[in-house]
Every structure is written in C-alpha cells, then in structure tokens.
From TrEMBL, chain A:
This is Carrier domain-containing protein. InterPro entries: ACP-like_sf, PP-bd_ACP. Residues 8-86 form the Carrier domain. Gene3D superfamilies: ACP-like. It comes from Paenibacillus aceti.
From TrEMBL, chain B:
InterPro entries: DUF6005. Pfam families: DUF6005. It comes from Paenibacillus aceti. This is Butirosin biosynthesis protein H N-terminal domain-containing protein. It comes from the Bacteria.
Length: 90, 309
C-alpha cells in the first residue's frame, strides 16, 4: 500500500514537473504513465532539467549506466526507477 | 549484430553482411573526425569532413570500387535526377547509399522537424514513386514517398552518395588490416578528449566570453561521437576470431560509451549551474583513462593475432 501511494506521489510530481517544463498546464490532466515523452516535445535539455528536479526532490543520484533515453521514455519508467532508488536508498 | 556506430559504415556493413566480414571496416572509427564550429560546437559533420578515408579503406580491403556518384559540381536538383536515374536501373547486388537530412524524415522522430543532421541510408528500389529504404543505423526499413526523399536530399546542406556492387568482393587481407590497425590504434593520444579538455578550459578561464549556457550546444553531439567507440568491440571480436563476446572487454567498451553519454548530460547540468566545470574535467580525465585501457587491451590482442598469422 505504501508503495502504491509513493508511486502515485511520484507520478503526480513528474506530471507537474513535465507540464511546467513544457509550459503546458493541460498536460497535468492529459499525461499518463505510458505517454511517450519524446512525442510531447521533451528533449535532452528538458530531461536533464527533470533529472535535476528529481534528484533534489527525492535525494537520489543517477549513475552513468542509468542515463539512457529509454529510462526517461515515460512517466511510468521514470517513476519505477525513482521508486527503486528511494527503496534502496541510492 | 549490427549496432549504431557510424551511419555510413553501418550501411556498408549491411551491404557486406552476411557474406563478407565487415568488421575491419570499423578500424579507426573510434577516431572519427570532428570539427569545432565557429560557435564552439564539437560537430561530427561539416563541409570539410568527408568520408574519403573510409572509401579508400573500403576499396583497399574489399578490392571493389565504392563509386562516389554525388557530383559536387552539379546542383541539388541535378544530383537528385542523377539519383533517380540510378535507382531506376539498380541491379540486385548493388546498393545505393545516399546522404539525407534527418530533419525531413518522419521515421526518425527525435530529429524530424527539430534537428538538422546529415545521415546515410540505403535506397533499394523505386516503385510507384515510393522508394524502399533501409536505415541500418536506426534499424529501420520501409517505403518513403519520393517527395520526402527529395526534400531530405535537396535541403541537406551537405551532400554525398556512393554506389556499391557486392558481386566480386574480396576478403580483407591481413597485411592491409594490420597496417590500418598500426596507424589507427595509437596509445597516449586522444583527440576527442584533448578537444573536450581545451573547451572546458576555455569555459573555466574565460567565463565572460564562454557563458555556461553555451555548454549545451557545445557538447550536443558528444553522444553521437561516443557511439563510434563501439567500434573497439568489433575489432576485438575480429582479432580474437570469436563469435562469443568477451564480457570483460565488452563491458569496458559499454562503460566508455555510457560515460560519454553521462558527460553530455553533465554538461547540460553544468549549463544550469547544477554541476561544476571541475566535474566535467574529471569526467573527461576518467574517460581518457578508460579508453587507454581499452586501447592497451586491443593492442595486446593485436600482437597475439599477428603472431598467430
């Protein structure tokens, strides 16, 4: 139950951050866990910006191995990695 | 297995595979040329970077002409007409390689209508104004309307094209491969790292002239240049004549490529003030050491390979 709440919190955080970065408030409602972020205009600069927000919010750090485009493809995937990091404390 | 390394070499490898060993063709791809543009961007393409070195190497290895059909004396439209005539009479063993601008190609969503990048694909045939295209680099195959190809060809600020006939290819001889390896596998020198370090130094010492926000553009093509480093793995496999990859060497190469990718992300972070220039410098030094280890390992394998011949 705790994990589900945490996942919801993470997804909401990501939706807010992404809609803010893209300056498109309507995305807060439209984004799903499976929306391909590249298709809504998230480029590498925005992804790094998002990464910085994530690191600050959850006190986590991305290793070189994790900096792959596929790891930032959707909110679902990003959320899953954050969840793993928060759980393992890295 | 073909991987994203270098679009022209990947096209040639596709044409050679599976009958002929394409791996020697990637010798030196780890040192692929780059240019520093006026605004400081380290770029893998420019008008002064040609693929002549790869054409010469191909012809020497495979004893078959790689015909450069693109004529720089003609304008784009004339060259496109030339391409159209060639595709009409293409033979089954022939491969027509053409450089297009990814900005106009819908299948590459990362660049389509966003980024101008010259890129080689193979045109196989034409039917009812639709051209069959193979893009080995992006592992894509499909049919594109002539208009889409025409835009991507005619609007490309650069231009190049090759015709390859695979009917009478030779196997690369050991002396040629050895000679190219001697020339390209140079320890103690890393032109990309050298340029990256010089660039970081400029940003550090001349902050007013080189504001950090420019780091994004300066290093925007680092990821593409880093993919060329995967060529070390192909040559390693070729020299040890192995079909099963050595996991230790493979992981070193993977780590190097991922490290450069991380450098690119770190540069963006630095542009936002979320990382320091010192961290970028340290990363470059670390990557230099990693690549030296890879070269040393490959050099050792090369010596054993030579002795075994």
């Amino acid at each position: 139950m705790e994990t589900v709440q945490s996942e919801q919190h993470i997804h909401l955080f990501l939706k807010k951050a992404i809609s803010s970065l893209l300056e498109r408030p309507e995305l807060l409602e439209e984004l799903t866990a499976d929306t391909q972020l590249s298709e809504i205009g998230m480029d590498s600069v925005m992804l790094v910006n998002l990464m910085v927000h994530i690191e600050q919010e959850y006190q986590v750090f991305y290793e070189d191995d994790e900096l792959l485009e596929e790891n930032f493809a959707t909110i679902g995937k990003i959320g899953q990695i954050i969840n793993d990091k928060v759980s393992s404390g890295v | 297995m073909l991987r994203q390394i270098h679009c022209l070499l990947d096209c040639l490898a596709y044409a050679l595979h599976p009958g002929t060993d394409y791996r020697p063709l990637f010798i030196g791809a780890w040192n692929t040329p780059f240019e520093v543009e006026e605004d400081g961007r380290i770029s893998y393409f420019s008008a002064s970077i040609t693929n002549e070195v790869y054409r010469t190497m191909f012809e020497q290895f495979y004893r078959q002409q790689l015909h450069a059909w693109y004529d720089h004396r003609l304008n784009k439209q004339q060259n496109f007409e030339r391409l159209r005539r060639m595709i009409m009479r293409i033979q089954p063993n022939q491969y027509l390689l053409v450089q297009l601008d990814l900005f106009y190609l819908k299948y590459e969503t990362r660049c389509y209508r966003k980024i101008h990048q010259p890129h080689f694909v193979i045109i196989l045939e034409e039917q009812d104004q639709h051209w069959s295209v193979v893009d080995p680099y992006f592992s894509w195959e499909g049919r594109l309307h002539e208009e889409e190809i025409s835009s991507a060809f005619c609007e490309n600020p650069l231009g190049e094209g090759f015709l390859l006939d695979t009917t009478n290819l030779s196997r690369p001889d050991i002396h040629s491969v050895s000679s190219y390896l001697e020339q390209e596998l140079v320890q103690g020198h890393n032109s990309l790292v050298q340029e990256v370090k010089e660039t970081i130094r400029k940003f550090t010492d001349h902050a007013a002239e080189f504001p950090k926000k420019r780091l994004v553009r300066t290093f925007s093509q680092i990821g593409i240049l880093a993919k060329r480093k995967l060529s070390y793995q192909l040559l390693y496999d070729y020299l040890v004549a192995s079909t099963s990859p050595d996991n230790d060497f493979a992981s070193k190469v993977e780590s190097l490529v991922k490290g450069w990718n991380a450098f690119g992300y770190m540069a963006i972070k630095a542009s936002m003030g979320a990382a320091k220039l010192e961290q970028l410098w340290d990363k470059a030094v670390q990557l230099e050491q990693q690549e030296e280890e890879i070269k040393a390992c490959l050099r050792s394998v090369q010596r054993q390979w030579k002795e075994a011949q």
